[in-house]
Structure formats: structure tokens, C-alpha cells
Amino acid sequence: MHNAFLIAKREYLERIRSKAFRVSTVLIPAAFAAIFSLTSLSIRSGSGDHQLVVASNDADLAASVKTELTSGKDTKLSVAVMAPATTADLQGLIAQVESKQIDGYLWLAVTPGQSQPEVTYASRSSADYAGRDHLESVIDDALVREELVKRGMAPVAVGGLLKGVKITTMQVKNGELVRGDSAKHFWGAYIMAFLVYFSVVFYGVNVAQSVVGEKTSRVYEVLLATARPESLMLGKLMGVGGAGLTQMGIWAAFALIYSGSTIAASFGTFGLAAYGVTPLKLIFFVTYFILGFFFYGALSAGFGATVGSEQEVQQFSMLIALPQVAGLVLMPFILGNPNSPVAIALSLFPPCTPIVMILRMAAMAVPWYQLLLSVVLMIAAILCLLWGASRIYRVGILMYGKRPTLPEMLRWMRYS
Amino acid sequence: MAIVELDRISKSYESKVAVKDLSFRIEPGEMFGLLGPNGAGKTSTIRMMIGITMPDSGTVSLFQQPFRRDSLARVGYLPEERGLYKKMKVLDQLVLLGQLHGLDKVTATTRAKSWSERLQIADSLDKRTEELSKGMQQKIQFISTLLHEPGLIIMDEPFSGLDPVNATLLQDTLLELRGAGKAILFSTHRMDQVEKLCDSICLMNHGAAVLAGNMREVKSRFERDRVVIEFEGDASFLNHPVVAEAKNYNGHAELRLKPQADAQQLLRAAIAVARVNKFELVEPSLEEIFIQTVGGRADA
């Protein structure tokens, strides 16, 4: 064990001091922050600063649509009304859009005797879907408002009726109702699941690369005369895993500072708890990172010992990421049905446990026995993997040249 | 009191027999040469001696007890395939390897510095390994083998790739260590070095020992059937009945005698007809013994 610690210390220090560590420590949260900020910004400014013309042969409807459009939060939208408009005005509107005088126009053609007008929205960008959804609901509201007023309802009463319903989301936890912001909680779950995915795959591949590197530089020839292959492998896993935890620790510290900062406050994201990141979840997040890392790390170490070049490691890294990618792909399903048999089974299947369980924990209060079982199963799987991988490792690191076949690897496991 | 004792060890990989029924002993203060062509089983034998692999049958004893991993703290191994951490600084690397051998940090550092002075690489202690020449790296590895003052030193091709000055430096160091009572196993296919340095040898071919024992004794098993004569005068004695083959280069003759022939008869015949300036009965070189023993059977 003494030797495993010496090897771990060397691995850890070499990683911490490397340029790659510094760069990824800064770049990854920066990329997250950028994505996050851009998303927030685009949501806020998606329909802002827009010049829109509402044209219709029905002046009342056009005015009503304008009221609806400008009454919402989107105060930056300026709307002009052209009514009553005829088809002759259409060319003029197209020219205005073309010459960027306006961003788009809404053409509402009302045909007497039909309850729905024929609506066309034209703009320079055809992919303005978020805007389109918004427009549809605005026009629906305007039609209802106009119809109700026509039938004698007071405009104020109509306004009150059409005000959107607010849903308060609550979570049942340990028999009590807890207030929760589901959208933000999903963000928290998404970031934690992605971090686990990224770190486990990244550091797993790191283990394989480092094994191949030492194999090609023939360091093992010297090390094996002093330390057991098992100690070498364990030391490598601890060193690389420790570097991973350090990096996540740095990120966690940044996240805490960010969540308490004024920037975060201005985006309405004050405190990690707002994202459903409770201390319990953080503990499980770290636990699943460590377990996931040892699971994929042992797999990578065993695999790294069988290959001769870094290129082969690349191909393999795609392969071992698959179970975790499956977890990420199934995210909407798991978040929507966290207690379904499929979600439960996946969260107890060791290769998928880290990501799927984190997602389930975000969506529901996972029963304690399932959490316990998932940890026990993962530890059992890790022990089996460590046993098998170290046997492949001890033979593989001294084999150069031809890549072994699967039967050959199975035979290696029997060598003592 | 043998430091190393191999007793009928065998090892096979898949269908290939790497080592077959091999036995030998190395005593303290002995320089032992493990010889053989490439693929003879030398590295496989060494790997079993230090527990990297286990023999399929037979036993390995180190320091008079059956192989135990903790005996390795008293073994220094310089593998044929040299390997160091490229990005690590030389001193850090030496200290790590010393610590892996059970030294504490302070002792490892002190010894690393003193060995570096001795082998003239003290200036490089602060450099990364990848910045050094191959010969320098080899010296570092040589030091790492000796830091923990092992009782058994195993060196696989220790001088390959070294210039003559550095090769002599390391050679003298090894001789000194032998003088201090260390057992040294030295594996190579360079016969001249073995002949100069080793007290005992084991010649391997196809996994088995084909010749083993004390160097003098091994050589004495081969007849001294070569004669070099420098003479002036009549060369007719070169046709004497004891001579099997003779080459005469203007008074310098190299002869091979017939089996069991008496060289004294030839000397008397020569003196009778010519003035003999030199008459030397030459013992066969290890290389000749090697070729004669392994013959065409060697793979390389």
C-alpha cells in the first residue's frame, strides 16, 4: 500500500502541475458559464428590439393583437398597426422587411362568416420558432378578447380572464410538501449529470492514456521490480482520481462564489439550493463521481494495458462512454418518469448508476434502500473489475507488439 | 551461502517454452554472466527471479529463502528496456525509485546526490529526463538500481549504447561493488565483456542451460588446441603429424592441433629446424566456445 501511495502522489502531482489541468480547470466552467449566460440572455432578448407591423382588414383585431403583444414582458417590441390593409399593401410590407425597416409583419386576413382569420407571419429568418409559438398564443388571446367584448363582456373582466394561470410546483419529500422550481432543478440535475459524465469519461480515458504512455516509455520494467502490478494500478487510479476530485473541488468553489455573486443574483439564480443542489445531493454527487471513476478507471487501466498506442485509446473511449451516453440521452424520460421500472433498473445497473441516479434524485426523493443498493452494487462491480483488470494489467503492461485477442486476454487472467 | 538459487525452473507462454529446467547459484561477491543469443530465455529467467512472473515449476530462492516480495528491497534491477518518467526531474525520479525500494526521502536524496557526483551527472539533477541524452538516462537508471544498496544486482545489457569512457566508468563501479561482496548477475550477448568481468557463467539456448559453471572451469573443459608461433627459418615443422590445420603469414603461424595432441612435440620439432621467438598455447575465447556449443542452433 505504501508503494500505491507513492505512485498515487506522483500521478497526482504530475497532473496537477500540467498545463492541461490548468487549461481545462478554467475552460470548462467558462464554457458552462458562457452557455448558461447565452441561454439566459437569448431567452430574455429573444423577442426584444423588434419592429413588427400588424396588418389586417379588421382594424379591431389588429389593435387587439397589438395590445396583447405589447402588454407582456416584451416591452422592447414595438408594434405598428396597418388597418384596414388590402392585398395591395402586401408588396410594401415585403419591401420594408427586405430593406430591414421592420423585422417582420403579421398578416391577419379576416373572412366574414369564418371564426378564424387566416394568419401569415413573415420575417427575414425562417427559423423564428420561439416567436411563432408566442405569436400564436397572442393571436388566440386577441381573438377571444375581441369575441368576448363583442358579446358584451367588460374589457377589464376579459383581461382578468385571459391572464395566464400560474402553476406552483411542489415536491413530496419524506411525506411533506416542499416548494420547488422544477425548471431550475432540472438545470441543477443536468449540470451535475453532465459533470459526472464528463469527469468520469475524461479521467477514465486519462488513466488509459497514462498506462499506454508508461508502457511505451518502458517505465513498467523498472517499477515492476519494486512494486506489485496491483499497487501500480491502484496508485494510478488514486492519483488520477484525486486530480479529478481536486478539479471538481475548484469548480465547486467557483460555483459557490458565482451563486452568491451579484451576476448570479441579476439572473435570478441566487444560491445553489435554487437549483435543487442540496448538501445530500452534493454528497451523493461526490460519491457517484468516485464510484464511477473507479469503475471506468479500472476498465480503462485494464484496457490500456492491452493496447500499444494512443490512437487505440481514442477508439475505445467512445466505446466505454456508451452506457453513460445512454443515461444522458434518456434524461427527459428519466426526469419525467423517475420511478418507472426502466429508470429504477438503469439506476441500479453499475455502468449507468452515477448519471441515472443523479437524475432520479433531482426528480424525486429516491428511497434510501435504492440508494444504498446502488452503492453496494457499484462497489461489488468495482471490486470484480479491479480483480480482472489487474490480472490483465500485470501481463499486458509487459506485452508489446500485437494487440491481444479476447481469448488471449481471458487466458492472461488465469496467469499468476 | 547462495544469494540466488534457481532450482529446475520452467516457464511456458502459450505453446512456446521460454525456460526449461534451469538451475544455477550466485554467491556473494560473484559476478555471474547469463549469456545466450536473443530469445534464449535470459529476460524470462530474470523476470522469474524478481517475481514479475512466476515459474510454472521449480523454485526461486533469494537470500537463502524461497522467493518473497519483500526480498526485492534487497535487489537492484536494471532492465534491458530502459524506462524513466520523461517529464519528471532527475532527482525527483531517483528519490521516487529509492522510496519505492523502501528508503526514506532524506536517505534517498542524499544517496542520489552522492551517486550523481560519482557518475558525473550532478549537473543534470534539476533537469527533466526528456532533456538528457540516452547515455545520461542510462546512468540515471544505473544509479536507481544501486540507491538502496542491494545485495543482489541484476543488470540486463548494462553497457549497451554507452560510449567507451562511460562504459568503463560503469564497469569499474560494478567491479567495486563485487569487491564489496555484492552478487551481480549480468545478462548480455557481448562475450568479450563477460570474459573480462565474470567469475561464472550460464550459457542459455532455447530456454535451457547448455553450459554453466566457473569461467576457468568452463574454459578448461574446452581443449587448448590452438597454437600461435612466431619463428625465423625453416617452416617444415608446420607439417608435423599433430597439426590438423596451419596458416603461415611470413613467420607468424596460427595452428589447430589434432584432438589429444601434445603441443610439446610440436615445440621440439620447431626448435630443431627454426629459431622460435614465440610459442603460445591459446585457450579458446568465450566467443569460440559459444559458437562451438550453440553452433548453428542459435536463432540469432
What order do the strands of the largest sheet of chain B run in, or round the barrel if closed?
A: 6-7-8-3-9-10
The stretches of 5 or more residues of chain A where confidence is low (pLDDT under 50) are none
Largest interface: A-B, 22 and 27 residues
Helix content bin of chain A: 55-70%
Helix/sheet category of chain B: alpha/beta
What general outline of chain B do the C-alpha atoms trace? elongated
Overall average pLDDT of chain A: 79
Largest sheet report of chain A = 4 strands, mixed
What is the total domain count of chain A? Answer: 2
Q: How much beta of chain A, percentage-wise? A: 5-15%
The protein's oligomeric status is: heterodimer
Strand content of chain B: 25-35%
Radius of gyration of chain A: 30 Å
N/C terminus separation of chain A: 20 Å
Kindly describe this structure.
The complex is a heterodimer of chains A (416) and B (300). Chain A has helices at 2-16, 19-45, 59-71, 87-98, 129-150, 155-162, 182-216, 219-223, 229-259, 262-266, 279-304, 310-329, 331-336, 341-348, 353-363, 368-396, 406-414; strands at residues 51-56, 78-82, 104-109, 118-123, 170-173, 176-179. By secondary structure, chain A is α/β, with parallel strands linked by helices. Chain A has two domains: 8-37 and 172-414, no CATH class; 50-162, D-Maltodextrin-Binding Protein, domain 2, CATH 3.40.190. In chain A, the strands form two sheets. A four-stranded mixed β-sheet of chain A has the order 2-1-3-4, with helices on both faces. Chain A has a two-stranded antiparallel ribbon with strand order 5-6. The two termini of chain A are 20 Å apart. Chain B has 300 residues and is an alpha/beta fold. A six-stranded mixed β-sheet of chain B has the order 6-7-8-3-9-10, sandwiched between helices. In chain B, strands 2-1-4-5 form a four-stranded antiparallel β-sheet, covered by helices on one side. In chain B, strands 12-13-11-14 form a four-stranded antiparallel β-sheet, with helices on one face. The longest helix of chain B has 16 residues, at 164-179. Chain B is elongated, with a radius of gyration of 24 Å.
